[in-house]
């Protein structure tokens, strides 16, 4: 009996003393955020649809069927057809691949640039003023006119060098990436300024640790939370900018559909087939909204004050 009672007393202590990792706490907090879970579910569903959908719905998005032009939804064409008889569902799925690829690639460029500038400005006092004035200069530039001018200047040369599809993809991704890093740089700089004065950084300096190792070992792991939140918001921002450029007719060519290009092509036929602008517009809205909800959930989950840590 004594042994049984002692085991029963020590079992709860073992259970309560079990160590939980930081990422487990973050996941538990993220799981309790209803909007973030719903956003993650919608975004995963969209990503799976554009990745696996063409294997199920095997109609070529470029196939022309003039006899089936401007049709409404049917079993063969669940989202109808356009004025040339192309299947709208196949075009939306193909355009989703391009739009998501643009979003992720441009986000990575902006994230690398913003993190690099933010860490250098926050850690090295001599670079702070120069890099922040550079950031202010980029923030002061009118974004949309700048994008239009750069695309008009370099579009033909990149098309000739890499082809019409690859050249425009590289140009759009590069332009969006180098004009979207400023907010990340400011956020990372603020966190690095606070971390630079913490005790563990001072201790690392006192034992002669190199600056590069201090940044990679102590600074970067502690600024992951704002970087991850900026990453989610950067995807949404890149998709919106690409859609705006394509809607203005300055993005990808007509035979290389994106969600923004489908909106541009369907705008002239909105009175005949309204579904042509409904489906790509709905895809853009759901993707951007779901990514924003994921960003909100990550921000709350990664903040120890909000998750009760």
Word description of this protein:
The chain has 13 helices and no strands. The chain is mainly α and 309 residues long.
Estimate what percentage of residues fall within beta strands. Answer: under 5%
**Distance separating the two termini:** 39 Å
Please state the overall shape, judged from the principal axes of the Cα atoms: globular
Along the chain, the helix and strand elements come as HHHHHHHHHHHHH
Q: Report the mean per-residue pLDDT as an integer.
A: 81
Which key phrases capture this entry?
309 residues, mainly alpha, 13 helices, 0% strand, disordered N terminus
Q: What is the element layout, followed by pairings?
A:
Elements lengths: L1 H15 L5 H10 L2 H23 L31 H36 L1 H16 L2 H20 L1 H15 L3 H14 L3 H8 L4 H9 L4 H24 L11 H8 L8 H28 L7
Could you write a compact summary of the structure shown?
By secondary structure, the protein is mainly α.
């Amino acid at each position: 009996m004594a042994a049984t009672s002692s085991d029963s007393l020590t079992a709860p202590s073992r259970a309560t003393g079990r160590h939980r990792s930081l990422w487990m706490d973050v996941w538990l907090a993220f799981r309790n955020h209803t909007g973030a879970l719903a956003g993650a579910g919608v975004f995963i569903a969209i990503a799976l649809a554009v990745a696996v959908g063409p294997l199920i719905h095997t109609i070529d998005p470029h196939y022309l069927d003039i006899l089936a032009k401007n049709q409404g939804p049917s079993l063969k064409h669940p989202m109808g057809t356009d004025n040339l008889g192309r299947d709208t569902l196949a075009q939306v799925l193909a355009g989703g691949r391009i739009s998501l690829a643009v979003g992720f690639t441009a986000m990575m460029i902006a994230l690398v640039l913003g993190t690099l500038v933010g860490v250098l400005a926050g850690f090295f006092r001599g670079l702070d003023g120069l890099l922040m004035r550079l950031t202010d200069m980029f923030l002061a530039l009118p974004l949309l006119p700048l994008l239009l001018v750069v695309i008009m200047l370099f579009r033909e040369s990149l098309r000739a060098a890499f082809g019409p599809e690859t050249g425009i993809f590289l140009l759009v991704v590069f332009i969006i990436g180098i004009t979207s890093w400023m907010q990340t740089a400011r956020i990372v700089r603020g966190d690095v300024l606070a971390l630079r004065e913490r005790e563990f950084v001072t201790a690392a300096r006192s034992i002669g640790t190199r600056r590069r190792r201090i940044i990679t070992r102590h600074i970067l792991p502690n600024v992951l939370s704002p970087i991850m939140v900026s990453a989610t918001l950067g995807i949404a921002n890149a998709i919106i900018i690409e859609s705006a450029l394509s809607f203005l007719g300055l993005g990808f060519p007509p035979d290389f559909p994106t969600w923004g290009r489908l909106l541009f092509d369907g705008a002239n036929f909105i009175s005949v087939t309204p579904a042509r602008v409904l489906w790509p517009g709905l895809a853009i809205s759901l993707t951007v909204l779901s990514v924003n909800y994921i960003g909100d959930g990550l921000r709350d989950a990664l903040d120890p004050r909000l998750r009760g840590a």
